Amino acid sequence: MNVLFLDNETTWRGGQEQIFTLIRGLYERGIYVTLLAPKEAPLSQRVRKLGIAHFSGHWRGELSLWEIRTLRRILEDRQWDIVHFNTPCGIALAAFLSRRARVPVRILSRRVNFPLRGRISRWKYLYAADYIITVSSGIAATLVASGIPRDRVEVIYEGVDAVEVGSASCHRLYPDSNIVIGCAASLSEEKGHTTLLAAFSRLVSQRPAARLVLLGDGPLRFSLEDQARKLSIAEVVQFLGFQERVASFLRGCDIFVLPSLSEGLSSAILTAMAASLPVVASDIGGIPELVQHGLTGLLVPPQRPQILADALQLLVDAPELRMRYGKAGRQRVLEHFTLDRKVMKTLRIYRLLLSRAGRRIEVD
């Protein structure tokens, strides 16, 4: 089986982490996989380190002559069975060229929970993708409500290597006398960091031992650092920027928080649960499909800093509850959100679609 993955992002976020682990998992099972992505992207660099074939390309527009030449050359390189889009940019062109090259199956992964905007967007999803894999039931429902047939949508939850996370080194930034709250997310508006800082300022005024560690970078970093200074909490909040070893930092935390305004499904929450952390997160999108309120963590409404502060304080004050939630969260990952489960379900979809398309695939 030959699978070509396309990704246009130059940053490393949850979507790139998940497609990387999928590529690695398929590669380890003997599937021939190749990536087309920007040369400078962290995803490209990590794939190259595995020794996996990689093509450099950056979509500048649907009708770029350079893109047409690049794609045609790649599609002529071998007999591809599947083209798997990890981002929607450029999929109309890629779908057209892949059909001309007689590639039987096109798949699109969707990780955001926004309705499709307008006829052109719906047309691209209907034409470009034979099948859409979503990471949560909520996203699947949103697509169906936007006009995508339900029989062309499959839910495959993201996965994490719980053994790898559990064996990661523990990087704790503060003494054990402090309660360390961690958040790993892009510093962008939809992740709700302004609400988190407002909530944390209220929490630390009542619980001075609390500390906040923010992993990730993004366009709001300077404004968030300014907000922390204005709230007089800059000395108890650390902005660590992008970190490759997220699991090590999370293992050094006591609580994980993600106050998103919108979320398809969070890879960071999965990593935190695999690290046996209790989770406080927004009750939106696919998050409730991960976090069970009162069992593995606490769900709160978005953009409500006082409610978020109260939920964090409840866990700060209850070490036994933190331990119980954390243990239950790791068990939930082991039962429902493993990397192996994600890879095998994806491979099953690949084989099913190729069978429907009349392409006979030998057992790898």
What features would you describe in this structure?
By secondary structure, the chain is of the alpha/beta class. It has 2 domains: 177 residues, Glycogen Phosphorylase B (Rossmann fold), CATH 3.40.50.2000; 175 residues, Glycogen Phosphorylase B (Rossmann fold), CATH 3.40.50.2000. The protein is built from 14 helices and 13 strands. The strands form 2 sheets. The chain has a 7-stranded parallel beta sheet, sandwiched between helices. A 6-stranded parallel beta sheet has the order 10-9-8-11-12-13, sandwiched between helices. Helix 1 runs parallel beside helix 2. The radius of gyration is 21 Å and the shape is elongated. The chain starts with a strand and ends in an 8-residue tail after the last helix.
Secondary structure blueprint with pairings:
Blueprint: E1 2-6, H1 14-28, E2 32-37, H2 42-49, E3 54-56, H3 65-75, E4 82-85, H4 91-100, E5 105-110, H5 118-128, E6 131-134, H6 137-145, E7 153-155, H7 162-166, E8 179-184, H8 193-206, E9 210-215, H9 221-230, E10 237-241, H10 246-250, E11 255-258, H11 267-274, E12 279-282, E13 297-300, H12 305-316, H13 319-336, H14 339-356
Parallel strand pairs: 1-2, 1-4, 2-3, 4-5, 5-6, 6-7, 8-9, 8-11, 9-10, 11-12, 12-13
Helix pairs in contact: 1-2, 1-14, 3-4, 8-12, 11-13
List keywords for this structure.
single chain, elongated, 14 helices, Rossmann fold, 364 residues, alpha/beta, 6-stranded parallel β-sheet, 2 domains, 42% helix, 7-stranded parallel β-sheet
